[in-house]
Amino acid sequence: MTLSSAPLESSVWWAHTSAANERLLRLLDGGELARHSRFRLQADRDRYLLGRSMARLVLAERAGCAPEKVTFELRCASCEEKSRAGAGGGDDAPHGKPVPTGAAGGWEISVSHSGEWVALALARGVALGVDVERVSDTRDLAGLAGYTLADTEHEVWSALPEADRAGAFFGYWARKEALLKATGLGLSGGLRRVGVTPPHTRARLLFWEGGADPGAAWLSDLDRGPEYRSALAVLTDRRVELTVHPPEAAPALLRR
Ligand SMILES: CC(C)(COP(=O)(O)OP(=O)(O)OC[C@H]1O[C@@H](n2cnc3c(N)ncnc32)[C@H](O)[C@@H]1OP(=O)(O)O)[C@@H](O)C(=O)NCCC(=O)NCCS
Ligand SMILES: [Zn+2]
């Protein structure tokens, strides 16, 4: 086996929002505490707190350091692209993907939260993106599908039985957004410009029409029950060996 065909290890941790508690606030830095207190809803505060706490605890363990030695730089690939093109950007308050720096430099993470679930994904040396979406009764599902699905995706989607459409829409969305989050572009990368396979078939990137084309990507759905859709994208051409830590394991992680 050549070195490049060795599998790449990636891990995902899930937490239920009920695992949030005040003790975790000690894990946030000053900027994070300020952001935490700006959320109006307790549910938003809890999701944010869990994402950052899980990230610090897991990275501290991997890097063999104390959680407070783990720092993040927020990087928005969309704004970086705009400022490279001389079209402004980069003047806003720091925002974007948290990239581990300090003692945990070299690791990559992605955080997602929706409804009662928080996901943290981690790998070493390759960018990755995780997304979780609650399947909701969106009033204008057809309108939303019209401007988020690529033409080929929309054709498949609109031929599905009515009862399957909401689940399939969020299945598409999670796959596409996981890819966009992996590149650090976020939604500004354009959901219609990223093409993926239909949700009832194996997850795969089909085309990338926008900037920051990742070339190769490994894509997989993650199971979070019938009310949610979730996906993980890892920007590598290698096989990925994924370890998923279920929500039952989160309380022990968060007690560390
Ligand atoms: C940021 C974004 C990817 C989040 O997607 P979402 O489905 O609403 O939320 P998720 O829970 O899946 O993801 C949120 C997490 O994504 C991460 N994130 C933020 N920006 C990101 C980016 N550009 N790329 C990858 N990840 C990003 C953060 O960790 C955030 O969690 P946190 O705030 O608790 O740390 C999406 O809302 C987006 O791209 N928004 C664009 C916002 C915008 O227009 N900004 C203006 C300047 S570009
Ligand atoms: Zn930006």
A few lines on this structure:
The chain is an alpha+beta fold. The protein has helices at residues 30-38, 42-63, 77-84, 141-148, 151-158, 162-183, 250-254, and strands at residues 8-16, 70-75, 97-102, 107-114, 117-124, 128-134, 194-196, 205-208, 218-222, 228-234, 240-245. Helix 1 packs antiparallel against helix 2.
Characterize the structure shown:
- With 256 residues, the chain is of the alpha+beta class.
- The chain has one domain: 4'-phosphopantetheinyl transferase domain (Ribosomal Protein L22, Chain A, Alpha-Beta Complex).
- Helices cover 32% and strands 27% of the residues.
- It contains seven helices and eleven strands.
- The strands form four sheets. The chain has a four-stranded mixed beta sheet with strand order 4-5-1-11, with helices on one face.
- The termini are far apart.
- 40% of the residues are buried.
- The mean pLDDT is 95.
- Bound molecules: coenzyme A and zinc ion.
- The site of coenzyme A (COA) has 21 residues, from helix 2, helix 3, strand 3, strand 4 and strand 6.
